[in-house]
Amino acid sequence: MAASKAALGRQHVLTFRVGATRLAAPAADVTEVLRQVRVTRVPHAPAGLAGVASVRGAVVPVLSLARLLGGEEAAPGAASRVLLMRAGEPVALTVDEVGALAQLDTGADQVAGGLYAHENGALRLIDLAGLLRREFAGLVRRGAAGRAEPAQAPRQAARDERAFLAFTLADQAYALPLTEVGEVITLPDHLAKLPRTDAAMVGAASVRGTLLPIVSLRALLGLGVAAGDQHGMRVVVAHVGGSRIGLLVDGLNSILRVPADSVGAVPAVLNRGRGEAQIQSICRLPDGRGLVSILSSARLFRDDTVAHLLADGGSDPREAPDMNPEGRATMGDRVVVFQLGDEEYGLPVDAVEEVVRLPDTLTRVPKAPGFIEGVMNLRGQVLPVIDQRRRFGVAGAGTGRRRVIVTRVNGKLAGFAVDGVSEILALSPHQVSETPDFTQPGDAGGALVFSRIANLETADGAGRMILLIEPQALLDRAERDLLAALDAALKGDDAPAGSDAMTGSAAP
Fold this sequence. Notes:
Layout: H1 2-8, E1 10-18, E2 21-26, E3 30-34, E4 49-55, E5 58-64, H2 65-68, E6 81-87, E7 89-95, E8 97-105, E9 114-119, E10 122-127, H3 128-136, E11 161-169, E12 172-177, E13 181-186, E14 201-207, E15 210-216, H4 217-220, E16 234-240, E17 243-249, E18 251-259, E19 263-265, E20 279-284, E21 291-295, H5 303-313, E22 333-340, E23 343-348, E24 352-357, E25 372-378, E26 381-387, H6 388-391, E27 403-409, E28 412-418, E29 420-427, E30 432-434, E31 450-456, E32 464-469, H7 471-490
């Protein structure tokens, strides 16, 4: 009988180490042991959350077990591993070293989702599932019944305006109507040359399972072929004749939203050049900042050229993945992708008023919180510019060609300074999933800034993760923290400028 009870108290476990603490997890709860994976950090998340990672195509929260146990996270080493475990929902735990499979006499202390720690010669049970519930409000995914759908941010049609995607060609500004652009991607590494094509045809590439013909917009406009490094070039995926064609441009410039009366007809003489594409209209930028030539995807090619491209490129409108049953192109879930440090974030295109260069100098605001970088003049409006690196806790100073993303949600206008804007992506439903609930109990923050995440496949298999931002939650949080900081300043509070009113820490 005693032997039987002893047998009931023994478990197959996997041993591992976190710092100086030796631990064990029931082998049945460990689904996989991984080497270091790329972890995408989640701003505003509790300290115990290292970030999220793509594991076998699924978004999994990666937790720092050292921090959960009240210690400090050690720098990853050659022996570091990630344990993929079942704890209600799949979670990954970072550990310093994995030992071996063994049998452990756990006695009667057995809890589903539990860990065992060896301390001072005794065995201590750690209720991992309970710890996660306390730290992360359950890490349960939001369901239709549990939480409202992510807030949508439709643009208000309060004024007659036109929206364009602007880009550069031979140091000149050109644009396409935003409704004719499906997405903007980097130039693929591998291009297949197509037969019977001229200098305008760059090649074809496989993009999400379909063949995308790519042509040089420089050549179509008679501007010659670009020489030198193609690293900064982008491919604007436009809808032409019911199919998709990639247009190679020198670089992505900005999203422009301008009054309709600033767009006028183009003089006929401007369309008498050697190029094949024709300019549809001219946009006069406010404040005398220059002119932008507006193109039209329908007038980029002659009819016989379109037929030739589609025949050689294999782009059949009946088989294109982004066509609805009527054969009309659909835009999908389009986001503007921007960078802060090594991380990528996405904002819905409809929430982006425009993208402009960060001025060399901004007007400083006395006694403003530290995350307000200054104010700038945007067509007669005073626009506060928020240093998004500080808001999201990104280390170091901004580098590269910094941009200001101007957003307008429910009439509220704000500018967010970012390190760069790289592309516009059209995301299909299977590429987007809800994020786990990273809120802590008692968090009064309300709606999450990051409610969804895009998980994209990459050629190296490592995956690419883009945190998708809810514009309303982002602006509400910035506005709330700004008001709290100003209120503290008026009361003579000694709190440091830039403190986060929600967490009391340096403003992320």
